Amino acid sequence: MAEGGKAWYPPNPEKRMQKLQFGIFDTTEIPDDRGSAATAAALEEHIADAQLAERLGYAYFFFIEHQNAGFDCISAPAVYLAALARATSRIRIGAQIFQLPLHHPMRLAQDLAMIDQLSHGRLEAAFGYGTRIREFEPWKMDFKQRYAIGREALEVVLKAWTEREVSYRGAHWSIEKALPQPHPFQRPHPPVWLGAHSLSSFDYAAEKDFNVSQIFEVEEACAEKFAHFRAARRTHRHPGPEPRTLLVRHMHVAETDRAARDEAEAYMLRGIQGKMGVEQALKVRPGDPPERREFARVYLETSRSVAFWLEEGLGFVGSPATVAKAIARQQQRVGYDILLLNRYDGIPHELYVKSLRLFAEQVIPAFAQAPHFSAAQ
Asked: What fold is seen in the domain 10-256+317-369?
């Protein structure tokens, strides 16, 4: 609500689009306690957060898979999703993303189909290739071949969801008369997302008519890549509606701008990937690939400057009215359908929950009632 108790609405009502949807990108602080009850307690807390998000009216609850990470994470995403499926009843769920090269595609297809059945059709199937060589090396997986391995794996997954018997001959995967079961609850299959960073990944998503998501890149880069994706898709003349686009941004809301900054700034300055992200960034060299150098810049600058967070559109902090205006401005520039909210690294759980409640009560209703706009129009 704006000052005086009046609802704040995004501007430019003549530029209409679908209503903006909101969800949670859950940063899973799950300690590897080696035998104590801390891991179980942390998992229970995160599942309770999903239940709270559902009650508050958020539409999505996502998290991310990591392997061999060296930090708190979800390394068994299908099992966690099965628990979420049975603990909730309306919110849509998914891992943003499953790292395709690290899964046997038939096993992954059947696990995800089972989750879709257990959730009665609430699975969002999001895939990617992985960005950290450290996650591949202990399993002797070829990091340089991850795109080729992942794309073949996704072809197998889609066949397993739509065919009674699967045979496949590829350079990396070979399947002979496999009998997948169950098939998904949603027909022909759950919505497919691609976590994309490179233009080639956006081109691939456009060719296949997949939905696309973005996590860490600055606002200008997201706007350029989403625009590239929409233009690339038009060249394929796909029938039906345009795929959805999703952005993950950090967020903290309090009653006033000052209160929000006081509560969040110390945690913002841990950086977008925390201490480990800073350590990784300091190892990057000028000759490294541009994508890696840009990630390093973001990791470092978000640990040095709250202004960088806000000016580059990587996070929101402020009162409900301030945050709503910032989201509306960003949505107009970038053009996205779903915004996932992430917590700043290490922020106390009680502050995180208070922020989620305030956002649900005073920001989401404004976007549900007002017209919206897209940079695509």
From this structure: TIM Barrel (3.20.20)
